[in-house]
Specification:
about 40% helix; binds (3S)-3-amino-4-(1H-indol-3-yl)butanoic acid; binds zinc ion; metalloprotease; Peptidase_M1_pepN_C; protease; metal-binding; aminopeptidase activity
């Protein structure tokens, strides 16, 4: 398996005009007949090259005739000389076995339902086709099956007993193809677009799940309205279908007119879903819907351009969620996720640019860097050009590239043409991996405050030389009395070292730097704890206000771990001031109460030249939780009661109150022997309170009875049971974590074939820092053993989860040896997938 390189891109020898597919569905012998019109590409003449994998070829014809062809494990080639002149009508019939498809790529079955997943390269497991995103065709699909609901892309055209036909008028790449057939029921609605076109909306689910669709439907309608209002983009078919499926490798998929969702990302009810679930569902529905323009109408020329659609669509869904909920709270959550996943990735052996330059298996590049850093890059671009130019450039992008397969060069060019700016240096954000370290020093001289910035990006795999990036740094100044004296200003840094001066200031202000987290960098700034506490109290920028609390907590923890320094009153009092401040949004107060994760602390210790000891991190973090609880003990019971909400409404206000209430509950549990948590668990009428109180009990190792009750109540509900499986591993004490995970694999409801269930147990194991890194090595061994097994069934999910090992170089030699040995054991497995081989090779490299 050789890597492929961005620099080697070539246009195909043939374009596609139209595609006619007929599916005769059967679990182990589905027939797929195709009739495809190919148009020779005069720019690059050659053989007709089609991808195809795991297909049983039954017949091939060109223009109605037999032709010579060559079939390999990966495709079918018809030599140029056998193609004749002009357009080509290619016909083939293949047989596939959806029932045996456990990889969940191509056409597969889930609970008796047929379903497809074609991104990135799944279509080649359905039939022979040029399975590359720059080849776009108009699809007509006929499905034959006794199942009652038969769906594909585009608009329905005709149907009869046992068959249905669909036609999608919009040319699309094969990765956006979809087919669903099953015994499904729909939650239906309609939407009228701003130009007055009526669109039928459906969410299709298994019978019994109908009552969990209303929230998703509202989210869809809000998304449609928002994209019209904010980006001027209207929906373009008569119908928009969403289908929920239980077995799915990721969250959801934006197939044209037929989005397919992991059921966990669309089904919701107050009794079974937490506030976090509701928020995620709203965001994912929006994300997939927004792809209709950013991804489908304008797609990617090749998979190296993945961030073109994913970074932009994440950026758009983040804007949407901020508008629907609270911008400050969403921004803090985004930064938490970025640091937890993307900074971690950028700091280790899997670091890669937002636009990678090579890959072996594209499935391994659906990463936090492509998605989340890709979105941050767009946010920076917008800050650099300004809001007005941003929307103008987007209009130009849609006008210029609608119906095309585009590149990052095309994307940046619309900004250059709109603004007249040269974005050559900015473009490095797409090619340079690693997280820049931005350092700042300041001087005060006769009414002038000068900020001296320097930037440096550490070397990353295969990129040792780094150049200075364009960094938009947002700064505001707060006067000594707490008033803002200079509002937010964007400083544009382009050099390795650069200074900026604010003049005519009365008294020396305190600078608030990197407001709203204006660039994905690590800011090194030495300010003392009282100054941080001052900003926590007075900064007008909610992100920086929160950030100061977080820095205080992080520094407190590092000092506790490194030299046993107890927490200072500055920190404890500052937190108390925020928690009791009823003028602040409860969601924000809950976020300020959150402590840095154990993984974050481990990375911070590494950055400061220490070797992290996971057990010590765990113990000190718990100790700080206890000390903070003592410091706040007198206010906790009343605060807990005051945050009680009435009837459950999954909006920002209700969810904010519940998050503060549950953060308080986990502290109360440390001092009341679990009484409040047990009572909350027993009284809970919504999953947020039920799961939140169970979490408090589990963290205090008092959750056994509640776990039994929870299982009894919910054993019929697969999505709730995923929580049950996950929570007991996620919140287990370090010495018990691996054992609990191991025991759960013996539970009758555990299955390796359902990615949600596998992730519930093993994602939780990898996410329990002290448990996974327990000195016994049991966590490493257990995960490796199950990844080897899963790789045989589902390489994509197995390879993604292998990134649990990406931080192995952080730890002491004993742990390093154990992790490296497990990686080597995985790597040495016979028949290992290309996905997993690439991941292991990169991690060990
Ligand atoms: N564009 C999709 C990415 C994707 C995917 C989704 C489901 C299963 C397998 C997949 N491979 C790639 C989802 C998105 O970003 O919207
Ligand atoms: Zn996406």
């Amino acid at each position: 398996t050789q890597p492929i390189f961005l620099k080697d891109y070539q246009e195909p020898h043939h374009w596609v005009r139209d595609v006619h597919l007929t599916f005769l569905l059967a679990p182990t012998a589905t027939r797929v007949r195709s009739r495809i019109t190919f148009v020779p590409n005069p720019q690059n003449p050659g053989d007709l090259e089609l991808n195809g994998e795991d297909l049983r070829l039954l017949s091939v014809a060109v223009n109605g005739n037999d032709v010579p062809y060559e079939v390999t494990d990966t495709g079918l080639t018809i030599p140029a000389h056998a193609l004749g002149e002009g357009d080509i009508t290619f016909e083939a019939e293949v047989e596939i076995a959806p029932q045996e498809n456990t990889a969940l790529e191509g056409l597969y079955m889930s609970n008796g339902m047929y379903c497809t997943q074609c991104e990135a390269e799944g279509f080649r497991k359905i039939t022979y086709y040029p399975d590359r995103p720059d080849v776009m065709g108009v699809f007509t699909v006929r499905i034959e099956s006794d199942l009652p609901v038969l769906l594909s892309n585009g608009n329905p055209t005709q149907k009869g007993a046992g068959w249905a036909e669909w036609h999608d008028p919009w040319p699309k790449p094969a990765y956006l193809f979809a087919l669903v057939a099953g015994d499904l029921v729909n939650h239906a609605d309609t939407f009228t677009t701003k130009s007055g076109k009526a669109v039928d909306l459906n969410i299709w689910v298994r019978p019994g799940d109908e009552d969990k669709c209303a929230f998703g439907m509202e989210a869809l309608k809000k998304s449609m309205t928002w994209d019209e209002d904010v980006y001027g983009r209207e929906y373009d078919l008569d119908i928009f279908n969403i289908v929920a499926v239980d077995d799915f490798n990721m969250g959801a998929m934006e197939n044209k007119g037929l989005n397919i969702f992991n059921s966990s990302c669309v089904l919701a009810s107050p009794e079974t879903s937490t506030d976090a679930n509701f928020e995620r569902i709203e965001g994912i529905i929006a994300h997939e819907y927004f792809h209709n323009w950013t991804g489908n109408r304008i797609t990617c020329r090749d998979w190296f351009q993945l961030c073109l659609k994913e970074g932009l669509t994440v950026y758009r869904d983040q804007m949407f969620s901020g508008d629907m909920r609270s911008h400050p709270v969403k921004r803090i959550e985004e930064v938490l996720a970025l640091r937890a996943r993307q900074f971690r990735e950028d700091n280790g052996p899997l670091a890669h640019p937002v636009r990678p330059e090579s890959f072996v298996e594209i499935n391994n590049f659906y990463t936090a860097t492509v998605y989340e850093k890709g979105a941050e890059v767009i946010g920076m671009l917008r800050r650099v050009v300004g809001d007005e130019a941003y929307y103008k450039a987007l209009d130009l992008y849609f006008d210029r590239h609608d119906g095309e397969a585009a590149t990052i060069e095309d994307w940046l060019k619309v900004f250059e043409d709109t603004t007249g700016r040269d974005l050559a240096q900015f473009k490095q954000w797409y090619s340079q991996s690693g997280t820049p370290r931005l350092s700042v020093e300041e001087t005060w001289d006769d009414g002038a405050l000068t900020l001296f910035f320097s930037q440096e990006t550490p070397a990353t795999p295969s990129q040792t030389e780094k150049k200075p990036q364009v960094i938009p740094i947002t700064v505001g100044l707060i006067g000594p009395n707490g008033d803002e004296v200079v509002p937010t200003t964007v400083l544009e840094m382009t050099e390795a070292e650069q200074s900026f001066t604010f003049e005519n200031l009365g008294a020396r202000p305190v600078a608030s730097i990197l407001r709203d987290f204006s660039a994905p960098v690590i800011l090194n700034r030495h300010i003392d704890a009282p100054t941080r506490a001052f900003l926590l109290a007075h900064d007008t920028d909610p992100f920086q206000k929160w950030e100061m609390g977080r820095m205080l907590a992080r520094d407190t923890l590092v000092a506790m771990i490194v030299d046993g320094t107890p927490p200072a009153a500055t920190y404890l009092d500052a937190i108390r001031d925020v928690v009791v401040d009823d003028d602040l949004d409860p969601a924000f107060r809950a976020l300020v109460l959150g402590l840095p994760s154990e993984d974050d602390i481990a990375q911070k210790l590494v950055d400061e030249g220490h070797t992290p000891d996971p057990q010590a991190i765990h113990d000190n973090r718990n100790e700080l939780r206890r000390i903070r609880t003592d410091h706040l003990a007198d206010i906790l019971p009343a605060l807990f009661d005051s945050m009680k909400t009435g009837a459950f409404v999954p909006d920002a206000e209700g969810s904010g109150k519940r998050s503060l209430r549950l953060a308080v509950l986990s502290m109360l549990t440390l001092i009341d022997g679990g009484a409040a948590a047990r009572a909350a668990f027993a009284a809970a009428d919504n999953m947020t309170e039920q799961a939140g109180s169970l979490r408090s009990l589990l963290l205090a190792d008092m959750g056994q009875d509640a776990l039994v009750a929870f299982e009894k109540q919910w054993k019929h509900d697969r999505l709730v049971m995923d929580k049950w499986f996950g929570m007991q591993v996620a919140y287990a004490s370090p010495e018990k974590t691996a054992q609990i995970a191991q025991t759960l694999t013996q539970h009758p409801d555990f299955t390796m074939k359902n990615p949600n269930r596998f992730r519930a147990v093993f994602g939780a194991l990898a996410g329990n820092h002290a448990g996974f890194h327990h000195e016994s090595g049991a966590g490493y061994a257990l995960l490796a053993k199950h990844l080897i097994e899963l790789d045989k069934l589902n390489p994509q999910t197995a390879a993604r989860m292998a990134s649990a090992f990406e931080t192995w170089r952080r730890y002491d030699p004993t742990r390093q040896d154990k992790m490296r040995a497990e990686l080597a054991r995985i790597g040495a497995t016979k028949g290992l997938s290309r996905d997993m081989t690439e991941m292991v090779t990169r991690m060990l490299g």
